């Protein structure tokens, strides 16, 4: 998708977005940072095709009707009379899935996100965090070409944080593009490949708050807890894992520091205990050359 000089305002009101230029390629994970009222949600609604820009245009395969777009709004409201499974199955059918496929996919996502109360829970009884799990599940019923997430970590428990990180990674690995908003630089650094900042309606490049490529990796030591299946995931395929060594009940990982938070969340979600997180000491600086001797006269 390409955004060219996109601007947005309602009627003759103030400009919410101005001259936004943005390109998304398959596999991109873009984080948009900004304060409340900066225009983040408006930008996401335009990317998801829910709002038309006042000026500029959007082009590319993700803007066609054939594209699968998953969208999680900042406020999610579902039909109060349906169960979680019934609601997701209904949405899956609307999106072209056979009933059995939609029901199976809904069950997989609800199980993975650990919805409290299970799939037969009525939507009207859900807490904010569990409603957010339904919002995430509905966006992923059909593998998205573009996944648009507005403050997706809001209200989620720690285990669901890790699952969301995995779902974002999997969507990008399958060739989808992901855009999410947040106001925390640490979250952007842990989960995004590119970070932009928005202020006064303008989107600018944002320096990655995480250490650059030259920073030493983190050394993470994990231990099996015995409280659940701790064999997964496939550690070598996780983004940022540079090397791993198994030493009895311990697993030693060398991880790029830009991905350390996501790896730690994944470990906790799979019933591993974090025993240690350290950064290797930098090599000693070379000794200063001796001062030149002055010739005697």
List strands and helices in order, with pairings:
Elements: E1 2-8, E2 17-23, E3 29-33, H1 40-47, E4 55-59, E5 69-72, H2 84-94, H3 99-113, H4 128-140, E6 146-150, H5 158-173, E7 177-182, H6 185-191, E8 194-199, E9 202-205, E10 218-224, E11 241-247, E12 250-255, H7 260-269, E13 272-278
Parallel strand pairs: 3-7, 3-8, 5-6, 6-7
Antiparallel strand pairs: 1-2, 1-4, 8-9, 10-12, 10-13, 11-12
Helix pairs in contact: 2-3, 3-4, 5-7
Helix content: 25-40%
Got a strand count?
13
Query: Could you state the order of secondary-structure elements as H and E?
Result: EEEHEEHHHEHEHEEEEEHE
H/I helix tally: 7
**How big is the Rg?**
23 Å
Our count of domains comes out at: 2
Your description of this structure?
By secondary structure, the chain is an alpha/beta fold. It folds into two domains: 2-205, Rossmann fold, CATH 3.40.50.300; 218-278, Alpha-Beta Plaits (2-Layer Sandwich). Helices cover 27% and strands 26% of the residues. The protein has helices at residues 40-47, 84-94, 99-113, 128-140, 158-173, 185-191, 260-269; strands at residues 2-8, 17-23, 29-33, 55-59, 69-72, 146-150, 177-182, 194-199, 202-205, 218-224, 241-247, 250-255, 272-278. The chain has a six-stranded mixed beta sheet with strand order 5-6-7-3-8-9, sandwiched between helices. A hairpin with an 8-residue loop joins strand 1 and strand 2 (17-23). It is globular and about 65 Å long. The protein starts with a strand and ends in a 19-residue tail after the last strand.
């Amino acid at each position: 998708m390409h955004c060219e000089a996109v601007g947005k305002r309602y009627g003759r009101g103030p400009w919410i977005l101005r001259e936004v230029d943005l390109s998304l390629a398959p596999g991109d994970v873009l984080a948009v940072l900004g304060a409340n009222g900066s225009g983040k949600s408006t930008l996401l609604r335009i990317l998801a095709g829910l709002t038309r820009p006042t000026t500029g245009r959007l082009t590319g395969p993700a803007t066609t009707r054939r594209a699968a777009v998953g969208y999680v709004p900042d406020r999610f409201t579902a039909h109060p009379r349906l169960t979680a499974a019934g609601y997701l199955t209904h949405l899956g059918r609307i999106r072209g899935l056979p009933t059995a496929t939609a029901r199976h996919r809904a069950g997989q996502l609800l199980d993975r996100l650990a919805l409290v109360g299970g799939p037969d829970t009525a939507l009207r009884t859900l807490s904010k965090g569990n409603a957010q799990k339904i919002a995430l599940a509905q966006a992923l019923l059909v593998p998205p070409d573009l996944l648009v997430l507005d403050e997706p970590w809001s209200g989620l428990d720690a285990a669901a944080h890790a699952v969301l990180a995995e779902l974002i990674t999997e969507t990008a690995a399958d060739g989808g593009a992901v855009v999410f908003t947040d106001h925390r630089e640490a979250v952007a650094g842990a989960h995004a490949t590119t970070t932009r900042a928005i202020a006064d309606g303008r989107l600018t490049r944002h320096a990655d708050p995480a250490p650059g490529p030259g920073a030493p990796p983190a050394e993470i030591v994990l231990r099996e807890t015995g409280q659940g299946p701790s064999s997964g995931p496939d550690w070598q395929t996780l983004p940022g894992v540079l090397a791993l060594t198994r030493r009895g009940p311990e697993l030693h990982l060398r991880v790029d520091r830009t991905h350390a938070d996501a790896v730690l969340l994944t470990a906790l979600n799979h019933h591993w205990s974090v025993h240690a997180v350290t950064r290797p000491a930098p090599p000693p600086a070379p000794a200063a050359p001796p001062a030149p001797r002055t010739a005697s006269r």
